[in-house]
Amino acid sequence: MAKTKQVDCQVEVDSQWSLGVYANAFRVGEGKETERVLDFFQYSEADNVAQLVSRVRVHQEMIPGIQAQLGEVLRDLSDPRYDGFRVVADIAGLN
């Protein structure tokens, strides 16, 4: 497993990405060889449809670090209005 290394650097964000894209669902899928795919969706419970809004490919060795970082953030979510997140099932052939 790769070691997590904290880097202190300037982060540049193109203005088109400064606000981000809203997502309320995600999945981690298989990518090519040693990659994993992180998909983010806008899910409509009323229509039962998930629209892909972002896909990021990462080396599989990054997953434990991502998991640890997300775990820390998710433990801090204490807002009673937060009703959880949706995980979209992996569908073979769509990765």
Topology, pairings included?
Elements: E1 25-30, E2 35-44, E3 49-59, H1 63-75, E4 86-87
Parallel strand pairs: 1-4
Antiparallel strand pairs: 1-2, 2-3
Q: What distinguishing features does this structure have?
A:
95 residues, alpha+beta, Nuclear Transport Factor 2, Chain: A, four-stranded mixed sheet, 1 helix, 4 strands
Polypeptide structure, described:
- The chain has a domain at 21-79: Nuclear Transport Factor 2, Chain: A.
- It has one helix and four strands; from the N terminus they run E-E-E-H-E.
- With 95 residues, it is α+β, with helices and mostly antiparallel strands.
- A hairpin with a 4-residue loop joins strand 1 and strand 2.
- The chain has a four-stranded mixed sheet, with no helix packed on it.
- The chain starts with 24 loop residues before the first strand and ends in an 8-residue tail after the last strand.
Largest sheet: 4 strands, mixed
Radius of gyration, CA atoms, in whole angstroms? 15 Å
What's the number of extended β-strand segments?
Answer: 4
The residue ranges in which pLDDT falls below 50 over 5 or more consecutive positions are: none
Strand content: 25-35%
Structural class: alpha+beta
The CATH topology of the domain at 21-79 corresponds to: Nuclear Transport Factor 2, Chain: A
Span from first to last CA? 24 Å
Mean pLDDT rating:
80
Which CATH class of the domain at 21-79?
Alpha Beta
Give the strand line-up of the largest sheet. 3-2-1-4
CATH architecture of the domain at 21-79: Roll
Count of individual helical segments: 1
Helical fraction equals: 10-25%
> Strand-and-helix sequence, N→C?
EEEHE
Shape: globular
